[in-house]
Design a protein that fits this description.
About 50% of the residues lie in helices and about 15% in strands. With about 220 residues, the protein is of the alpha/beta class. The chain has a domain at about 5-30 and about 80-120 and about 175-215: Rossmann fold (3-Layer(aba) Sandwich), CATH 3.40.50. The strands form two sheets. The chain has a five-stranded parallel sheet with strand order 2-3-1-4-8, with helices on both faces. It has a three-stranded antiparallel sheet with strand order 6-5-7. A hairpin with a 5-residue loop joins strand 5 and strand 6 (about 140). Helix 2 packs across helix 3, helix 2 crosses helix 4 and helix 3 runs antiparallel to helix 4. The N and C termini lie close together (about 10 Å).
Length: about 220
């Protein structure tokens, strides 16, 4: 049976890692929105060319074009054993369009995996990164501190900085935007009995054990 999945979770929840595990174990393509756009534009598909017009102007790609690109991608033969969608759908309109599309393609969704982590924990994860000003080595206040406090392991420098998008106010804003976007989708898939929520605030391997158990039960 084909394994047709959506992977959901807030920034920092560990989606990328779990996506890689799923792809390695179940041999289905990981389809992220960014990759899809790049591929469609590189291949100059009809929808890819349309998307390029908007992207070149710095505009958001409208839903009908995004949906068209997803449909083109899900029609490709490598999705026969299944697929893992990441970054789509983002809105209820896109979720409805996906339901229609999977119906037409006869590739119904098997499950929606939502990796759930407390936003406070995510804030700590996402704001913890800091970088050596001299050599660019990356550290994290929770997971990877320099061996000698205040001294870079690589070059011995003593000056560190934080990227703007890792600063608390930027992280809070990014999480707020994503919570607002994800909450209706979580309800949407819950109502359709497709939602499986996994506690993402565990060791990576424990999260994977939970995800794998869900996939094996389908």
């Amino acid at each position: 049976m084909a394994l047709n999945l959506i992977l959901m979770g807030l920034p920092g929840a560990g989606k990328g890692t779990q996506a890689q595990y799923i792809v390695d174990e179940y041999h289905i393509p990981h389809i992220s929105t960014g990759d899809m756009f790049r591929e469609a534009m590189a291949n100059e598909t009809e929808m890819g060319l349309k998307a390029k017009e908007f992207i070149d102007k710095g505009d958001l790609v409208p839903d009908d074009v995004t949906v068209g690109i997803v449909k083109e991608r899900l029609s490709q033969p490598d999705t026969e054993p299944g697929f893992l969608l990441d970054g789509f759908p983002r809105t209820l309109a896109q979720a409805d369009a996906l339901a229609e599309m999977t119906d037409v393609l006869n590739k119904p969704l098997s499950a929606v995996i939502n990796i759930d982590v407390d936003p406070k924990v995510l804030t700590d994860r996402l704001t913890g990164r800091f970088i050596c000003k001299t050599c660019g080595a990356t550290y994290h206040k929770l997971y990877h501190m320099p061996k000698v406090p205040g001294t870079c392991d690589v070059c011995g420098g003593h000056e560190f900085y934080q990227r703007d998008d890792d600063k608390p106010e930027a992280v809070k804003n990014r999480l707020d935007v994503n919570i607002k976007m994800n909450t209706p989708l979580v309800s949407y898939y819950d109502e359709r009995n497709l939602l499986h929520t996994v506690n993402g605030d565990q060791e990576i391997d424990a999260v994977w054990q939970d995800v794998d158990a869900i996939l094996r039960s389908l």
